[in-house]
Structure formats: structure tokens, C-alpha cells
Amino acid sequence: MSTQKENKMNLLIWTRTGESLKIINESLEKEFKEKYNLLNYTKRGDILLMHHIHLDDLSKFSRRILIQPMDGTVIHPHIIEKINNFHYIVTPSNIGKELLENNGVTKPIKVIPNYYDDNLLSDDNGFFSSLFNEKKYTFYTESTATHRKNINRTLRNFLKEFTEKDNVRLVIKLNEVSKSRVSVLKKLLKKYPNHPEVIIINKKLPKEYLYSIKKGIDCYICLSYMEGFCIPLLDAVVLKKDIITLDPKISGYRDFINKDNSILLPVKEISTFLSPGDEWIYSKNSKWENVDYVEYRKALRTAFNGEYTFNKNQDYSQYSQKNVMSQYNELLDVVSNEVLEREMKIKELAQLRYDEHFSKFRMNPNLNRRID
Q1: Which of 227, 244, 243 is nearest to 289 (CA)?
Q2: For 337-340, which contacts have Cβ atoms below 8 Å and span 24 or more sequence positions?
Q3: Exposed / middle / buried, residue 35 (Cβ in 10 Å: 0-12, 13-18, 19+)
Q4: DSSP for 216-274?
Q5: Cα(150)–Cα(267) distance, rounded to whole angstroms?
Q6: 360/362 Cα distance (integer angstroms)
Q7: Segment 339-361, tens digit of pLDDT
Q8: Could you tell me which residues come within 8 angstroms of residue 190 by beta carbon, excluding any fewer than 6 positions away?
Q9: What proportion of the chain, given as a percentage, has pLDDT over 90?
Q10: Model pLDDT for residues 191-212, shown as the tens digit of each residue
Q11: Do residues 302 and 263 lie in contact, with contact meaning Cβ atoms separated by under 8 Å?
Q12: Are 339 and 88 in contact (CB under 8 A)?
């Protein structure tokens, strides 16, 4: 336990380098700094909150919580063994919980979704309108450009459906990917000389600029083969945008995406094409989902023509930052109490050992020496 005067409990928030998901960011630090001493990873702590599984030795922490979204359907058995060394597992979707259980996770699994930022609904700073002064129906997608995100086919089939005669544009927001990856997309554009307006933004933007783009677009597209949750999709439905995406069996966004708020594309099961960053976690037996691209092109035209009635009045308040962070607070309160109870048990055991030694000069063989 912490010996500092404020008697805070030590909490380590540990995430992969470059992690950008919202749950592990300055908001979490802001929420918990009043109650916990936030540590760097080199220090011993009471509670570990880790985003995505690592193979490091974590035994120095009294309680360990793993946040694990699912980007594949089958996890290697030795990774499941590592996951079961945590005391609690958090995953952002109900299908994620189901997949973890099917893979053999036996520790308690709690579904806590990702959230939309409160500032998403604040006033627009005008960045979108400064970029585009010509009114066009604007499709939009965000991508890390990994194979799982399926950005190539998203673009290629957009170019097959629309030409420069259509009053339409596609904005692709990338997260500072390599120049070679951007070059692939630009080569695709050259294959369609009469293509409509396509804007590729390959840079990180301040939140208020990114949110301006999200507010200015008309339709969000997500054709990823699998998503653990998909925050951009959540942002789009909260902002009451048109949506085109999969009708998934394995992606986490099916908790908040449905046929009323989105055009859902029929899917078929496909094999995965795992990146080096994923293949150590997921088996080659994992499955993803793909769409019929004729149906995708029909959906593009349907949305553009205004022929689909989207229900934009559904309630997403459970995904607000306040409500989601309160769930993390509740979990950490439970775990904090367990840490305190564990410390008391250790002290009681130490006293019993002391009493046993000096009263009988031997340890009672029935005395439990292990405290989990």
C-alpha cells in the first residue's frame, strides 16, 4: 500500500506505445488522479490497468485489470493463459465478452464500452467549412490503413460508383501512415481519371479540428473486416450522420449500430490476414467478415440519393464519457477494496505465523501460505 500522507492507492495505467484509444488517455488520468498515485511502469504498484495484453511479468501488482478489445476470433492458448493471470478483464462489447469466454477466459469479464468525448457535441470551430467551400454530399472514413481496416476496397469501389459528374466527395482521414501506404491510394485514383473529389488527410489533427470534420460530413463508411468497438462509428451516430457498414456477427459496434440507424451490408466469413502486431495474439484460424461490393456500391448511391430513412433519434447516453468513466470508477472501487482486504489477510497471516512459531516452534501445515 502507498505510505504517502494522502493515503492514495498506487495505480499503473499501461498501454502500448502510440495507443490512441480514448479510454487510456488524459481523461482517465484526470478521472483518477484524485484517488490514486499514478505510476510509471517501472514502479511496484497496487493495481495495474493494462490496455491490450503484454507478455511482461506482472506479478508485482496486487490486482491486475486487462482491457482487451477483440480484433480476431481465435486467441492462442498460451495468450489465454496470460489473460487468465489477470483478476478482471474489461472488453468494450458484448460480442467481445462472448469471444473471450469461447476462447477459454475464466476470470470475470466486464463489458465497459468506449465513449464519445463530451467535446464532440460542442460548437463547431469551422475547420470543415474552411476546407470545403463547395457544398457536396460528403462521405467520410477514418483508418490506420492496416489490412483489417479495408481502406483500399473502400476507395476502389467508391471510384467505381461515382464520377466527377456526381456532386459528391470522399474524405479519408489517416493517422500519419507511411508515404508508401498513401502512395497506394493515390495510384488507385489515377486508375479512374474521371473520379469524383477525394481528399486524403494523413496527419494527426487537434481534437477540435477532427470534430469539425466529423460534424461537417454527411455519411460515415466503415468496411473494416472486424472492429473491437469502432469509436468513429459511435461518433457518427451520436452526431446523427448517415452510416454505411457491415451487418456484423463478430464486430463490437453491433451493440449500438442497427438497421434503423445504418445501411447494413450482408457479410460472409473470410480468413484473416494478420499483421505481425496481431499474429502473436490471434491464431490463423481466426475469422473476419467481408461484404459484397456490389451491395456496397448500391448503398453508396442509396445514401447519396437520400433514399434511405435513417432513424437519428436513438439514445446513446450510455456511451457518454461521464457514464463510461463511472463504470471504471465502480470497478476500481471494487478492486481497491480487494487490495485492502488482501493486505489485511497478509497481516493476519503474518501474525498467525509469528504466533505459531513462538508458541509451538513450528508452522501449522493447514495454515494457508498463499494469498491471492
Answers
A1: 227
A2: 338/63, 338/87, 339/1, 339/9, 339/46, 339/47, 339/62, 339/63, 340/1
A3: middle
A4: H-SEEEE--S--S--HHHHHHHHTT-EEEEE--SS-GGGGT--TTTSEEEPEEEEE---
A5: 14
A6: 5
A7: 888 777 777 777 776 666 555 54
A8: none
A9: 68
A10: 999 999 999 999 999 999 999 9
A11: yes
A12: no
> Which residue did the predictor score with more confidence, 225 or 56?
225
Rounded-to-integer distance, Cα 255 and Cα 95, Å: 8
Cell of 1: 500500500
362: pLDDT strictly greater than 70: no
Are the C-beta atoms of 301 and 244 separated by less than 8 Å? Answer: no
Q: What is the structure's pLDDT at 1?
A: 37
Q: If 0-12 CB within 10 Å is exposed, 13-18 middle and 19+ buried, where does residue 283 land?
A: middle
Read off the pTM.
0.87
First to last CA, the chain: 15
Q: Which of 331, 262, 326, 263 is nearest to 295 (CA)?
A: 263
Tell me the sheet residues that pair with 13: 49
**14, three cell numbers:** 499501461
- Could you tell me if 287 and 73 are in contact, meaning their C-beta atoms sit under 8 angstroms apart? yes
Q: Which amino acid is at 78?
A: H
d(CA 98, CA 105): 10
For residue 196 the three cell numbers come to: 469524383
Asked if 178 and 147 count as a contact pair (C-beta separation under 8 A), the reply is no
**Shortest CA distance to 50 belongs to which of 60, 231, 102, 278?**
60
Q: What is the rounded CA–CA span in Å between residue 356 and residue 25?
A: 49
